[in-house]
Design a protein that fits this description.
By secondary structure, the chain is α/β, with parallel strands linked by helices. It has a single domain, classed as Rossmann fold, CATH 3.40.50. Helix content is 43%, strand content 14%. It contains eight helices and seven strands; from the N terminus they run βαβαβαβαβαβαααβ. The chain has a seven-stranded parallel sheet with strand order 3-2-1-4-5-6-7, with helices on both faces. Strand 4, helix 4 and strand 5 form a beta-alpha-beta unit. Helix 1 packs across helix 8 and helix 4 runs parallel beside helix 5. The longest helix has 26 residues. It is globular. The chain starts with 12 loop residues before the first strand and ends in an 8-residue tail after the last strand. 45% of the residues are buried. The mean pLDDT is 95.
Length: 256
C-alpha cells in the first residue's frame, strides 16, 4: 500500500493544462491530493467532464473547462476561472502536440508551425498571461513539462524534440526575470512514459526493446513517476529552486 501524499499545497490554487489523461491527469490528481484546488482543462468537453467526475469522486477539489491553449479566448476563460476561485499560485503548462512522425528536416512546414504554436508559443503566452495572478501569490510557481527529447532528440519526433529544447531556454530566461517577484520557474523533462502520446515510440516489440536499451532502469515510466516531482516543485520544499530542468527518465542520457 502506497503512502498517503503529503499535504504541502493546502490553500494553493493550480492550473494544469492538458490534464484529462496521461501525465497531465496524474499531475492534477497529485496536486489535489496534496491539498490544492486544481483547475483542469482539455480541448474536448467530454474528456473534461470525465476527468472532473473521476477526481471529484476521490474527494478532490477540482473543476474543469475546455481550453485549447493556442486560442486566446480559451486562455482568458481559464484565468478567469482561477480569478473567481481566489487567484493562482501554480501554473503547470503541459499541453503539447506532435502531428507528424518525421525526422526534423523532413517535417512539413504546417506541422512545424503547429508544434511550435502549441508547445512553445502557447507555453510562453500562458506564463505571460498568468503573471497578474501569480504576482499576487506569496509563492508563485510556473512549471513547464518538457521532455528528455529536448536533450536527446528522437528521430521520429524531430520537430517536437526541438520544441522541447526551446522550453529549457524559456525556463532559464523566465526564471531570471521573475526571481524578484518570488516566482520560481522550472521544467520537468519526462523520459519515455507509458501514455498514448508515447505509442509512436513503443508500438512494436522491437521499437520498445530499442527504447528500453537506452533506459538503465529498464522500464518505461508511469505518469505518477512525474507527478510527485511536479508537486515538489509546486511546494515550499522547492522555494530555493528556480531555472532548473529536472530529468525524470530512468537514467537516460540527458545532455545538450
Amino acid at each position: 500500500m502506497s503512502a498517503k501524499p503529503l499535504q504541502r499545497l493546502c490553500g494553493r490554487i493550480a492550473i494544469v493544462t492538458a490534464s484529462t489523461d496521461g501525465i497531465g491527469f496524474a499531475i492534477a490528481q497529485r496536486l489535489a491530493q496534496e491539498g490544492a484546488k486544481v483547475i483542469i482543462s482539455s480541448r474536448k468537453d467530454k474528456n473534461v467532464q470525465e476527468a472532473v467526475s473521476t477526481l471529484s469522486k476521490q474527494g478532490l477539489d477540482v473543476k474543469g473547462l475546455i481550453c485549447h491553449v493556442s486560442k486566446a479566448e480559451d486562455r482568458k476563460r481559464l484565468f478567469e476561472v482561477a480569478r473567481k476561485s481566489g487567484g493562482l499560485d501554480i501554473l503547470v503548462s503541459n499541453a503539447a502536440v506532435n502531428p507528424e512522425a518525421a525526422s526534423v528536416l523532413d517535417c512539413s512546414e504546417s506541422s512545424w508551425d503547429k508544434i511550435f504554436d502549441v508547445n512553445v508559443k502557447a507555453a510562453f503566452l500562458l506564463a505571460k498571461e498568468a503573471l497578474p495572478l501569480l504576482r499576487q501569490s506569496k509563492a508563485g510557481r510556473i512549471i513547464f513539462i518538457s521532455s528528455i527529447a529536448g536533450f536527446q532528440p528522437f528521430d521520429l519526433l524531430g520537430a517536437y524534440s526541438v520544441s522541447k529544447t526551446a522550453l529549457f531556454g524559456l525556463t532559464k530566461a523566465a526564471a531570471i526575470q521573475l526571481a524578484p517577484d518570488n516566482i520560481t520557474v522550472n521544467a520537468v523533462a519526462p523520459g519515455i512514459i507509458r501514455t498514448k502520446f508515447s505509442d509512436v515510440l513503443t508500438s512494436t516489440e522491437s521499437a520498445k526493446e530499442e527504447v528500453l536499451s537506452r533506459v538503465p532502469l529498464n522500464r518505461l515510466g508511469t505518469p505518477h513517476d512525474i507527478s510527485g516531482a511536479v508537486a515538489f516543485l509546486a511546494s515550499d520544499d522547492a522555494a530555493y529552486l528556480t531555472g532548473e530542468n529536472i530529468v525524470i527518465a530512468g537514467g537516460m542520457a540527458s545532455r545538450l
